[in-house]
């Protein structure tokens, strides 16, 4: 099957590949589901259960039809390695994610492939080196301490998800845009919220009055907002991520273009905000019901020997291994990105099944993270799974909350830093508890969140 080149000004952009007909995939077990909608309704209602049912019926490779398209699921750590590590450069992230993100977040780092992705990733990596990261931590310390104090002042009962969503949005604004963002910050947040909501909206056209129309308007605002500041940022000495990207250069020393900066900023803010909100929510939930592990983390924090209210120093981040283990375990149980789509750019095979060029495939962290063959008692919260000894002999693609291979999340260390800073300020000052036998119902797709908002009690520690 031949590639059809897009009319695209980006010479390294991945060409479009037409999807293969059903006849080319019939050798793969699976189902077409219901007329018109396929398995869409089942996946929306219970994404974890639906994948487990398909696996039980068809095995680790199966085809299905949902959300207007046909795809092949590849399940398990070997499948994760095959698709994500992708030494042969077979799988396109551009055309995997494009149907979902291209209208609102086009040409963000995750939507680039191969040489183009490598070129931009190296340029963007300057924003996540030690110097800038220390500056971000200073802002995080101040913002998180203020946010946690505000929650305590409101009383014991907290609906956590909307509270942490607002806090992570505030933190993203400061870390990405700097403390001098000015009076436009409210409009930036509103536009950003509309873009994120539109990315997963059911109605995919920007018809008047729809969420997609609001998202498209939000993107237009962000293009103007970012574009009008680039030259000034290049002349400034700011340590925020926006300023770092405005000064970033590719391998040949060229600055990123205006449109590249806009696209990367929009995408990075989206990736950092929603996934962190989800991860911190599950982190707090599991520690609110596992009182022993909450106390272990509190003891680890107190063992740092810092004065009450003192910011968490950058050099102390590696001194919180139990906190990191608990954060990883929460992401194992509720990964912030439950499935990862790709598109095969050439004919390939996996486990004896032919995957023609143009086949949409997906790997599923949510499934892999609960496989009994990998994780003993997989539904139990147990951070010791991530001790050095326990991790040593595990398949390296058994735990993939940040993806893997060339597309491993660029902000991985930024996420761990935020989680540790958050845990430090929350658990050093606050006891967090849930009512007995509390188990929220999780909406697991597209980004997990508790349907009731996660109701917990905050009690100040004397």
Strand content: 5-15%
**Unreliable residue runs:** 1-7
Rg over CA atoms: 22 Å
* CATH-defined fold name: Cytochrome p450
**CATH homology superfamily:** Cytochrome P450
**CATH architecture descriptor text:** Orthogonal Bundle
Helix content: 40-55%
Order of neighbouring strands in the sheet with most strands: 1-2-8-5-3
SSE sequence, one letter per element: HHEEHEHHHEHHHHHHHHEEEEHHHEEEE
User: First CA to last CA: what distance?
Assistant: 68 Å
| Sheet of most strands | 5 strands, mixed
Query: What is the overall shape?
Result: globular
Number of domains: 1
Count of β-strands: 12
The averaged pLDDT comes out at 93
- Tally of helical runs: 17
CATH class membership: Mainly Alpha
Structural class: alpha+beta
Key features of this structure:
globular; disordered N terminus; single chain; Cytochrome p450; 462 residues; five-stranded mixed beta sheet; alpha+beta; 10% strand
